[in-house]
Write a structure and sequence with these properties.
transmembrane; about 0% strand; 8 helices; mainly alpha; Mitochondrial carrier fold; about 170 residues
Amino acid sequence: EYSCEYGSLKFYALCGVGGVLSCGLTHTAVVPLDLVKCRMQVDPQKYKSIFNGFSVTVNEDGVRGLAKGWAPTFIGYSMQGLCKFGFYEVFKILYGNMLGEENAYLWRTSLYLAASASAEFFADIALAPMEAAKVRIQTQPGYANTLRQALPKMFGEEGIWAFYKGVAPLWMR
């Protein structure tokens, strides 16, 4: 009757795949808008509005320029979705078992919030390296045009810390 048993490895895997599809694909679909938004934040004199930002980007980089940062966006948000959706279910069951069936039902809202926050903690750790690369690709002209160029350059300049400087702001968000 069911596609898998609740709490089974297949269940967690399906939740994770749902996260990959819902986060990775949707965030990648809006890369052009995110690119212009990031550039407006970094250089408001040059990118005065959303429409102006699109126009400036297309004039300088062509239509393909609107896709800058698509690879780290897809990988990073896919990893975030995998962790967010998969670990949410793991923590929901773990915390529910710790509370017991009756308390888990009585405190279900708090249980769901705790499971969500716990999952997001790990999801943001998974996202942070790709988000750092994406922002550099999108906002620092000449730094790197692709993920393959950005990763070794970032590591060479700052070491592993380059990829996790933004994790605390992600947690605060």
